[in-house]
Amino acid sequence: MEKNNLTTIWKGCIAGDRKAQFRLYQIFSNKMFALCLRYSKDEDQAQDILQLGFIKVFNKSHLFNEQGSLEGWIRRIMVNTAIEAYRRNAVKFTEPLEQQHTEIAESLQTPDNLDYQDLLALIKMLPLSYRTVFNLYAIEGYSHREIAEMLTITQTNSKSQLSRARKWLKERLVQLERTQ
Description:
Helix content: over 70%
Distance between the termini: 43 Å
Largest sheet: none
Number of helices: 9
Shape: elongated
């Protein structure tokens, strides 16, 4: 999309123009939904996070100072909204693995054929507490200190969750390798 066109749409959003807001939603909703899905337990929760996130984008549009990219600013709001949902649902940090995780893992391709979608599916099988820390650290690039503050946990807990997530993923990849 042309920068001038996006600038025009964004100015309309700041002015409260519903058509401009809808257009901005159309431009970024698929990418932001994928982000929300990484932090949620299912698609319904991801959709809720997405909607709440866009409401915040439109209500706080005057706060965007155009120092960085608009997409980056929207992304940050979506991540923060997902973290708020995570806190609100008070997930325990020691979740048992469910049987469905094993069934999904068996349906994945072998490591030689493992593609991006398969890797995302494998990450999606992580218990929510592991997945949240893994996403924030490995994908979003936050430090353990920042993660601890966001999730109201200790830095040690953040490091432990990341370590467990990596171990869990490594074990699943080894299992997949053995089945080929």
